[in-house]
Amino acid sequence: MNPSNYLVLSAVLFTIGAMTVLLRRNAVIAFMGVELMLNATNLALVTFSRMNGDLVGQTLAFFVMVVAAAEVVVGLAIIVAIFRTRQSASVDDVNLMKG
Amino acid sequence: MNGFTAPEVAWGALSPVLVVLGAAVVGVLVEAFVPARARRLVQVVLALLALLGALVAVGLLWGGVERTGGTAVLGGSLVVDGPALVCQAVVAVLALLSLLVLADRTRAGQGAIAPSVATVPGSEAERLAREKGLQQTEVYPLVLFATGGMLVFPAAGDLLTLFVALEVLSLPLYLLSGTARERRLLSQEASLKYFLLGAFASAVLLFGVALLYGYSGSLRYADIAAATATPSPLDGLLVLGSVLVLVGLLFKVGAMPFHSWTPDVYQGAPTPVTAFMAACTKVAAVGALLRFVYVVVPGLQWDLAPVLWGVAIVTMVAATVVAMVQTDVKRMLGYSSVAHAGFLLTGVVALDERGVSGTLFYLLAYGVATVGAFAVVSLVRQGRSGGAQLEAADLSAWDGLARRSPVLALAFSVFLLSFAGIPLTGGFLGKFSVFSAAVDGGAWPLALVGVLASAAAAYFYVRVIVRMYFTPPADEALPADEVLLVDDATAGSPSDAATGTGATALGTAGTGTLVAARPAATRTAVATSQGLTAVTVVVCLIGTVLLGVLPQPVLDLVGSAAVFLP
């Protein structure tokens, strides 16, 4: 199978992730969109790695996984802190600052 | 199977980064093993020593780099050349200055950081944490981790290092912006906004990295630059990948239209953290942007120049206009920092050697004034004397500050004049050097827009100075809207008498002189610094003036350091 199909899939997943971040109102769902974007990137990296015939892309994919895990730790901590204060994780409610 | 070959590591060239990150790890251990009473002192001393050590290490590397033009360490992952070292030195100095502000809890014991960040604002647990005098000392290792990332960011020689450094500098900042002691709802909101938008921007940058890797088959800047020289059917990947990476970097720089986090986060985060973030992140991100634009994609100038030009012009004009209507001082400084990102971009777009040195000088001048300005903001409070004091966020609370505290008013005026680019301040020479570089590089329309925007920006800087010197202070109590009420309840009473002397909350910072405390209700007051913030204000003041009056040594230094190692 032509590896460029995987690139198309990765671009589609990335776009879905980006749309999720921009359109969904729940902070947890928006954050899942970010994770989808990162994993779409991983798919692209691994595909390019296969096409180029080296391991650089796969190495980078491992780094991305570690970073994504660290981001989950920080992100969920922040979202939980907000939820405990406001009993809501909707990004529309978080609007004290404007202008 | 071959045996394992150990990589060759040039430890010396890595020393600034290693010192800071090593101290950050030690700081985490300090949290676990040092008794609570001594923890804060140990953390502050450790962090200060680490940043001093990084500065010394950069100084030691300087001679060698000036002779040889720089070295690539770890197989090119990290490039130690002139611009990288200048950025590292500036980041270390500015982090040191903002750390002093962060460590200052004022004589009333009302520092910027919440006693326990995990507690729900307004809850019983929070009140208890205040009474027990708890202190969230984890902020110091977090600042060191972020600084470590910022030291790597402008020196990154491949896209993997760039991405990892971006995350190492960003993740601690997301947490730090949520740690404010007062106005905790705003702080948490800033933290969430910064996190969601920051994670989104890193994902965009990462997809750009993947596309560039697919185009060139390598992550090294030098290899990608070599690949751009020959036309290939994959050029679409190159252009799209470069644009996505640039978007990620411009987000960190805070340029429009990727700026939407800047004012909210600057307003909500604890003021010392804002100082750190505004100054150091900008230096690191602009350093990384310079390297990317000058090393990786100069061959793409014709494709990317319209993008960068557009971003620079929109940033300068729109940020200046929006800043004029702000009434919150931190928010105004936030938009001003966005406008400065536009001015810095003119130096980046110039694409000649003077653009690099001009931008580096601008970064230093801007950073010093920024840390100083936020240090002043952290001292000007409103509230009952001796009682809970909130930072004077609204500009109306700054009326007549010069009568209460001439030193602070003078310092703030100098910083604002430097932002505005008035001669005899560092900001003037910074703007002059980036604009003249832009003219030399053929980007004269950008310089023209920049000059006009600076002229317009002078309006809202001077407006604050007029308020401080010529407007009599309002004596009636400030209108307390709902948010303020919530925060007042949250602020509680400063009974965490860890540093004692709660009653002497009024006075001028620089001298520590007490002025008559008025017993009335809500009004502007000046918190007495423990000395650390005063040091920062004075150093930044001297720095800003010296950069404007005797800039030659610094200009020579950045001039000799303006060549990127390919």
UniProtKB/TrEMBL annotation, chain A:
Organism encoding this protein: Cellulomonas marina
Keyword Lipid biosynthesis among record annotations: no
UniProt record similarity statement: Belongs to the complex I subunit 4L family.
EC category name: translocase
Catalytic activity: a quinone + NADH + 5 H(+)(in) = a quinol + NAD(+) + 4 H(+)(out)
Principal place of residence: membrane
Subunit annotation: NDH-1 is composed of 14 different subunits. Subunits NuoA, H, J, K, L, M, N constitute the membrane sector of the complex.
Enzyme Commission identifier(s): 7.1.1.-
Alphabetical UniProt keywords: Cell membrane, Membrane, NAD, Quinone, Translocase, Transmembrane, Transmembrane helix, Transport
GO cellular component, one term: NADH dehydrogenase complex
Entry membrane topology: Multi-pass membrane protein
A molecular-function term among this protein's GO annotations: NADH dehydrogenase (quinone) (non-electrogenic) activity
Subcellular location(s) per record: Cell membrane; Membrane
Gene3D superfamilies: 1.10.287.3510
Record flagged with keyword Transmembrane helix: yes
InterPro entries, A to Z: NADH_UbQ_OxRdtase_chain4L/K (IPR001133), NUOK/Mnh_C1-like (IPR039428)
One of the GO biological process terms: ATP synthesis coupled electron transport
Protein name: NADH-quinone oxidoreductase subunit K
Membrane spanning stretches: 6-23, 60-83
Pfam families assigned: Oxidored_q2
Protein's job: NDH-1 shuttles electrons from NADH, via FMN and iron-sulfur (Fe-S) centers, to quinones in the respiratory chain. The immediate electron acceptor for the enzyme in this species is believed to be a menaquinone. Couples the redox reaction to proton translocation (for every two electrons transferred, four hydrogen ions are translocated across the cytoplasmic membrane), and thus conserves the redox energy in a proton gradient.
TrEMBL record, chain B:
Pfam families membership: Proton_antipo_M
Catalytic activity line of the entry: a quinone + NADH + 5 H(+)(in) = a quinol + NAD(+) + 4 H(+)(out)
Protein location: Cell membrane; Endomembrane system; Membrane
Domain NADH:quinone oxidoreductase/Mrp antiporter transmembrane, chain residue ranges per copy: 156-454
Entry keyword Transmembrane helix: yes
Swiss-Prot/TrEMBL keywords: Cell membrane, Membrane, NAD, Quinone, Translocase, Transmembrane, Transmembrane helix, Transport
Bilayer topology annotation: Multi-pass membrane protein
Chain ranges passing through the membrane: 12-34, 41-62, 82-103, 139-156, 192-216, 236-255, 275-294, 306-325, 363-380, 407-430, 442-462, 532-550
UniProt EC number: 7.1.1.-
GO biological-process terms attached to the record: ATP synthesis coupled electron transport
An annotated GO cellular component: endomembrane system
PANTHER family: NADH DEHYDROGENASE
Family to which the UniProt record says this protein belongs: Belongs to the complex I subunit 2 family.
Assembly and binders: NDH-1 is composed of 14 different subunits. Subunits NuoA, H, J, K, L, M, N constitute the membrane sector of the complex.
Protein role: NDH-1 shuttles electrons from NADH, via FMN and iron-sulfur (Fe-S) centers, to quinones in the respiratory chain. The immediate electron acceptor for the enzyme in this species is believed to be a menaquinone. Couples the redox reaction to proton translocation (for every two electrons transferred, four hydrogen ions are translocated across the cytoplasmic membrane), and thus conserves the redox energy in a proton gradient.
Name by which UniProt lists this protein: NADH-quinone oxidoreductase subunit N
Organism: Cellulomonas marina
